[in-house]
Amino acid sequence: MEALPENDPIPPVRLYRINAGSCNGCDVELATTASVARFDVERWGCRYSESPADADIVLITGPLTVRVRDKVLRLYGEVSEPKVTVAVGVCPISGGVFRDSYAVVGPIDRYLPVDINVPGCPPHPRALGAGIAKAATLWRERCGYTQPSPELASPGNYDGDAVAPTGLRGKMRFNAAACVGCRMCEHVCAGGAIRFDETDTGLHFTLWHNSCAFCGLCSHYCPTKALSVTDEWQMSHLQEDKYRLVEQGVVSFVPCTDCGSILLPVAPELLRVAYRETSREIERLKTLCPECRQKQSIGGIRR
Ligand code: SF4
Ligand code: SF4
């Protein structure tokens, strides 16, 4: 497209929402961006359109089910170019907790080009605002507008004064020093967001925020609370960063003080949970591998 002159008036950016089989959680949050004053996207030069043909930005919710796939792709094709596509919520980005369902054919980027992702289950309205603002900037760039919209140039309009409500579940945080490598978190995660890779040096933990449904189960079942929920809701990002939005850590192996074989260290948090008070004997046993621990315990009983 030919670049537009710098002094051209900046038109409002028009948004169109497509539901690709969503549970409606994200759609309810999107509704606030049209109906609740403090989240209203009109404050930064955007407005919702009733027709795909009139839209500039497509907001897609849901994991893309078999049932709606063709309708979604047809509607998407009706949006004129240049357009910007936003995947709203973890479902269109990765499938979320529905990712292995027979009824789901997503993630959505298998079928159409995504520009912006706004993870969450559902995302906070402020996160949606930030994602829409990024998309609007991108759309204006694609159209050749060289002047940024004054509203969009001020992030305070969509996230500057955001205070997370009490109890909001956001990004998960991992504390490798407290992890004992039981892998319970990996087992209970319905979104498949957590993976451990065992190497010669230790257990490598990865949590993909774009698969996490903020359910908090990993933290609930973690015996040492090495995983905790934060109230960080701002995670909208460009598609190129889809696989970079991760939480990582390494639980390094340590040598057994007796035989030298490697073992996972016993986190102090685990001792606090298991014993009311620690002793010299417990401190000594925690540096031993299971076999040496067993031998020494039996030796102690015999003595
Ligand atoms: S984070 Fe918690 S649940 Fe997961 S492996 Fe470590 S200790 Fe176990
Ligand atoms: S909060 Fe934990 S268990 Fe729940 S989806 Fe996210 S990583 Fe998985």
- Which fold name is given in CATH as the topology of the domain at 13-157? Rossmann fold
Count of helical segments?
A: 9
Helix content: 25-40%
Structural class: alpha/beta
Span of the ends, CA to CA: 87 Å
**SSE string:** EHEEHEHEHEHEEHEEEEEHHH
- Under the CATH scheme, which architecture of the domain at 13-157 would be assigned? 3-Layer(aba) Sandwich
The gross shape turns out to be elongated
Small-molecule binders: iron/sulfur cluster
Total beta strands? 13
Give the DSSP E fraction (strand runs of 2 or more residues).
Answer: 15-25%
Reported for the largest beta sheet, the result is:
6 strands, mixed
- List low-pLDDT spans: 1-5
Q: Strand order across the biggest sheet? A: 2-1-3-4-5-10
- Computed CA radius of gyration, to the nearest angstrom: 25 Å
Mean pLDDT: 87
Query: What is the CATH top level name of the domain at 13-157?
Result: Alpha Beta
Question: Would you mind describing this structure in some detail?
Answer:
With 303 residues, the chain is an alpha/beta fold. The chain contains nine helices and 13 strands. The protein has helices spanning 25-35, 69-78, 90-94, 125-143, 184-188, 217-221, 268-274, 280-285, 290-302, and strands at 13-19, 46-48, 57-61, 84-88, 116-118, 172-174, 194-198, 202-208, 227-229, 237-238, 246-252, 254-255, 262-263. The strands form four sheets. A six-stranded mixed beta sheet has the order 2-1-3-4-5-10, with helices on both faces. It has a three-stranded antiparallel beta sheet with strand order 7-8-11, with no helix packed on it. A two-stranded antiparallel ribbon has the order 6-9. It binds iron/sulfur cluster (2 copies). One iron/sulfur cluster binds next to helix 6. One iron/sulfur cluster binds next to helix 5.
